[in-house]
Design a protein that fits this description.
single chain; alpha/beta; 11 helices; 11 strands
């Protein structure tokens, strides 16, 4: 990575507000993301989504975030006011969630939702906004027909809903996209299509991508670097193309435990959690 990172984080911890000596939910995490594709991978409950919410200033009540350093494009995110966060999210920083049924507003049409994002973060005239909406829908593979523009989230298939959400997050040209399990609610064929779409759009727009996933084989195909997370900590880091050769016990087990035709009828590997705990980064 030759350019300065867009996102630079050191010593990020997420704790409960009333924590008394307990281990943080996210513990002393360090990461950087430039104009590249970085994956954050681990089991459910490892702290991946909490990390994403902390990076966007969206932690729920009862949790607090601490960091030695947390910067986006040279800006100290630790000092952002609620108004400054609102200006950053959706304009410079964008988040794609797991399930469009919960992320999209159920009472607004596709056109209204995309138009609202443009009005919140820009000064385009109505005709310009209509043109930008049509261009963005085309970019995600959805012809901007009157039927689609007037549709509500419950009238969209899972794949269409996810494409609309991607369009909504990218329509203002953000510099960094955080995608939290963006394909987990889709079937296998649609997963590959949507992930390919995200990766292509990120590359053509020269954005940074932090992809949160539990699927090592998928991120090995689509990302540049991978961070492996276990119980709130980063335990392994490697180039995506080298995941299959990692010697870390946690990474090796995650890589090997995906069911396939080759493993049919045989027991999948299980985690040696004691060995993993001993190997955690200090």
């Amino acid at each position: 990575m030759t350019e300065s990172p867009l996102l630079l984080v050191e010593g990020l911890s997420v704790r409960t507000a009333r924590e008394t000596g307990q281990r943080p939910l996210v513990d002393a995490l360090a990461l950087s993301v430039g104009v590249e594709r970085v994956a954050l991978v681990g089991e459910s409950g490892s702290g991946k989504s909490l990390t994403a919410l902390a990076l966007l200033g969206l932690l729920p009540a009862g949790l607090r975030c601490e960091a030695a350093r947390m910067e986006f494009a040279g800006r100290d995110l630790r000092r952002c006011t609620p108004r400054e966060w609102a200006a950053l999210r959706g304009a410079s920083l964008a988040l794609v969630l797991q399930d469009p049924r919960h992320a999209l507003n159920p009472v607004l049409s596709v056109a209204r939702q995309l138009d609202e994002v443009l009005r919140l973060h820009g000064t385009l005239a109505k005709a310009q906004r209509r043109e930008r909406i049509a261009e963005m829908l085309e970019a995600v593979g959805l012809p901007p027909t009157a039927r689609l523009l007037g549709a509500y989230p419950h009238q969209l298939s899972g794949g269409m809903g996810q494409r609309v959400m991607i369009a909504m997050m990218l329509i203002n040209g953000p510099r960094l996209l955080i995608a939290d399990e963006p394909t987990s609610a889709l079937d296998a064929e649609l997963r590959d299509q949507v992930l390919e779409l995200i990766v292509t759009l990120v590359a053509t727009r020269r954005m940074g991508l932090l992809l949160i996933s539990h699927d090592l084989q998928s991120v090995a195909r689509h990302c540049d670097r991978v961070l492996i997370m276990y119980r709130g900590r980063i335990v392994d880091r490697c180039a995506a193309g080298e995941l299959g050769q990692s010697t870390h016990p946690y990474t090796r087990t995650l890589w090997s435990c995906r069911p396939s035709a080759a493993t049919f009828g045989s027991a999948l590997p299980t985690l040696d959690r004691e060995a993993i705990t001993r190997s955690v980064e200090p």
